[in-house]
Here is the input.
Amino acid sequence: MSKSVFLLVSLAASLMLSGGAAALALPPSPRSWKPDIDELVARDARHRPPQHGVLFVGSSSIRFWAATLQQDFPGIPVIDRGFGGSAIADSTYYASRIIVPYHPRVIVMYAGDNDIDEGCTPRQVLDEFKVFVARVRRGLPDVAIVYISIKPSLARWSLWPQMREANRKIAHWARTRKRVTFVDVSPMMLGPDGKPRANLFREDGLHMAPAGYAIWIAALEPVLARYGFPAHRARAAGG
Here is the structure.
């Protein structure tokens, strides 16, 4: 065995013996999402999304919204750019491919849930959101950015204290920025006992049922209206 190989093996063993194995369990690299991003871009080439609309980006709560997003915000040109399991940094990494080319006037983000689950601190979640805002503003200086608070869920209830603190930090920072809005959906998602309402979730206790999205829609509509995108429900099919 060469000296260099011996050193690498020794280092790996040392890390595991000292508890370093946890440090090796790193979050997925943004590059792992490339097939998902390639698929989104290829789909765009076949069916070009609207320009200058409202772009929704983030993790699986956004991705699963794609089927009803247009009918949930009637009369608003919406684009769904969610990719499941992603963290804030992943949307930042791919902003040049899935956000900037569509010149949205408003970006709605839901991410941070997975960041906390992967071990990020509330401060790191805030810092990642700051980086995201700076990145998209380089290409879109006037874009408004709406951050949906990390949701309380049954599956990740043990992480709620960290998630709540991340929400608090982002809300405070957003108040100091122009055209950055924090939308807190958590009060409406908690029941009288202070715990997540089971009827808002699918069987996995993490992803939302239609009743959960209804809360998000109600919270977002007045914000989008302030940015010039009122929903035209009176003209929508079925009211």
